[in-house]
Each structure stands twice: as C-alpha cells, then as structure tokens.
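Run KamA family radical SAM protein through structure prediction, thanks.
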Amino acid sequence: MELWQQRLKESVTTVEELAQRFGIDPEPLREVTARYPLKITPAYVDLIGEVGDPIWRQCVPDVLELEDGGYADPLAEAHYAPVPAIIHRYPDRVILLASNNCAGYCRFCTRKRKVGSSEHAVSFREQREGINYIAGDSRIRDVILSGGDPLILPDAVLEDLLARIHAIPHVEIIRIGSRVPVTLPERITPALCAMLKKYAPLYLNTHFNHPRELTPASAGACALLVDQGIVLGNQTVLLREVNDDVTTMTELLRGLLKIRVRPYYLHQMDLVQGTAHFRTPLQTGLDLIRSVRGPVSGLACPHFVVDLPGGKGKAPLLPDGLSYRDGKTLITTSDGEQVDYPDVLDTVSVANDPA
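Sure, done. The structure for KamA family radical SAM protein is below.
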C-alpha cells in the first residue's frame, strides 16, 4: 500500500471521530451524514484551527444541509448524459466521470447527490462506454476527467483511461479536475507525475478555496506536477464566511501564483440542494473582482462565472455587468439569451431539477 492510500484509510469518516477530536455533540450530525457522507483526510483535518473556521465549514457536516432549497442536479447534468459516465453540454468538449469518490467530501459539492454514494459508483463498463462515446464523436477535442476525483484512482487504472483517450485521433487535450493537491498532497508522487507527462498536452485544474490551504505539502505537490510540464489552474468557489472578503481572496490569489498555479475561475456557488448557507449574492463576487483588479497582478485575477441552472452553461460576469428588469436579476448566456437568475437566497425554495 502506498503512503497516500494509507493516509486515505486514516481519514475521519464518522461523527464520533469529530466529537472525540473537537468536543462537539455528534447527535445533530448523524442525520446529515446518513444523507451526505463524511470524509476528511488527515492533511485537511489538521488545517482546522477551531470549530466553525473556514476550513471547518468546508469539510464538516452542518444541519443546514438538510434544508431542501435548491436543486439536486442544478446544472441538469443528467439531461446532458448520453451515456452514464459522460456529460456533453458543449459541442467540442465532454466531461468523463472517472470516479464518484474523492479524498474528502466538500460540503458544497455540485455533485453532492452522487459523491461517495455506492448507488452512483462509476463502473468499468461505464468508463468504457464513455470512451467509446468520445471516440464516436469527431467534434470532441477536449476531454475533462472529473468525478469525484480522478486522482483517487490507482496509477494503473488512471493510465489506462488516459492512454485510451489520448489514442483517439480527434482528442487534442485532456484536462483533470482534482482537489488532491489540497486534501491529499501525498497522492502527487514522482511516479504519478511522470506518468501524466506522457499524455501531454495535459492540464490539471485544482481547487484551493482559502489561503490556509496553501501549505508546504500542497505547494510541493504542485511543484512536482509543474516540473513535469503539467499546466496548473485553480477553480475557487465563492463561499460565505470562507473566502468572501477582499483580504482573504487577495491572499489566496497571490499565494496561488507563488506556487505556480494560475487562478482560472471564481465560481458563484451553484444552486445545489443543501448548500444555501454557503451562497453569497452575485454582487459579492463582482465587488471582489473589482477590488482585486489593480492591487493584484492580472495573472492572478480569475474569471468570475455563474454556471446557470438548467445546463445553460457558464456566464462570465464583470463589475457592473448585471442587468435587472421587473425586479429580476438577468444574466446573459453565451448564446445571447437572458436568464432569470435567483440571486436572492430565499427565492431558491424548490428541490426540483431546473432543466
């Protein structure tokens, strides 16, 4: 067993472990973890300074997750799934769901309904169906491995997937979405990085949300990847009481550049069922972008985007870029359609899919 696999086995997975370590009452959290699994790696739990701090909020269950406001599948991914392991929303690129497991389960996850659930495990057959689908559509030039977290797969399984995708003539680039540089930096080994290098051009978007996540271990993991030619970007989710202030966001963006990770997206929280307590008004993100432009290098300024409900795609927002009509917040899609976006948290009150 490799070190990273041993660390994964040592993860916190029960409310009793949380109670023992932090002195909390576990009883209110039992119903939450029965619906949404708990897993926190040793590296990440060690970053918690106190109950309720920004690291705690991201990984520890909260009874507010039982509130049903929002959508189980806010981006209508099921609608855009021609086969179970594929999400094909844009003509030239697809997401291949390589796994439904992660090193740690973020409480704000877009795929909260699936991650860590045995019911939604991605089978070998479904992976192969997904690769066959990609091979059969010559429009697809960009394949994004997501999940769950693809880097939770053993090296041999991951390489088999990469080799099969890389061999498809019309696929030009492969991207991987992974939070393990943050939550399980031990997973980023020299052997893994050398293997990934063989499938260039390969891009990896990771997921730092707070400057305290920029640890020496995470920086070392990113250095191993970059030194093997893997291009690193970061997708931050804007989270209430985690990173929704200028000081925190500025420190995060500057810190990412120092470890050779380019800030790519700042995401407005998706309208995911059980996550309303994390959501901020759209104006919060716009104010942050306005505030960091100038004081922070342009290299460190991400695109602020909203992934619109119903699978309408990502819409970039700029300061003063919203429009309003009849008391509604309107966002313009890439197709020029104006979409009514439920910006006031209390209006997101149904648990049905928006597609």
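The longest strand covers residues 231-237.
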